[in-house]
């Protein structure tokens, strides 16, 4: 019975490990190498589970092996997604005119420096239809549109890392 409980606990941990390392593809570790070039939920989850199960990503980051480096920055895009999701209407209004509190807050979340704020606001205004292609656009589509706009601008491309 004790062995069955242990196995059940381990199996239940796999989804948590996969979610914790959801952006694993494109990062490092054996799972990343095994599923390199594949996209979608399954390859990302499988790469995360592989790295979590074999514990090689932590080792790789610690010692610079398995394609891992020690100079990467830990980042999370969930705050940006939550902000956009909760402020879509106001953000769309602000982008349409190129200024406003919601647009300023988004720039702050993305780490846009003061020297780049005018360019950021201009890019948002000029590409409103790319970022907000419809009235009922999903948050992830807004993020993808914003990524497309920022990555196409040489001055603003560095801020895509925060998305």
Summarize the topology.
Blueprint: H1 2-20, H2 30-34, H3 41-54, H4 56-63, H5 78-86, H6 88-97, H7 101-110, H8 117-126, H9 128-131, H10 139-151
Helix pairs in contact: 1-3, 6-7, 6-8
Report on the architecture of this protein.
With 163 residues, this protein is an all-alpha fold. It folds into two domains: 2-63, no CATH class; 78-162, no CATH class. 63% of the residues lie in helices and 0% in strands. It contains ten helices and no strands. α1 (2-20) crosses α3 (41-54). The longest helix is centred in the N-terminal third of the chain and has 19 residues, at 2-20.
* Largest sheet report: none
Could you tell me the number of beta strands? 0
Report the portion of residues in β strands: under 5%
* Number of discrete domains: 2
Separation of the first and last Cα atoms: 46 Å
| Helical content class | 55-70%
Number of helices: 10
- Please state the average pLDDT score: 78
Rg measurement, Å? 19 Å
What is the general shape? elongated
Helix/strand class: mainly alpha
Q: Notable features of this structure?
A:
63% helix, 163 residues, 2 domains, 0% strand, mainly alpha, single chain
Task: Give a nutshell description of this structure.
With 163 residues, the chain is an all-alpha fold. It is built from 10 helices and no strands.
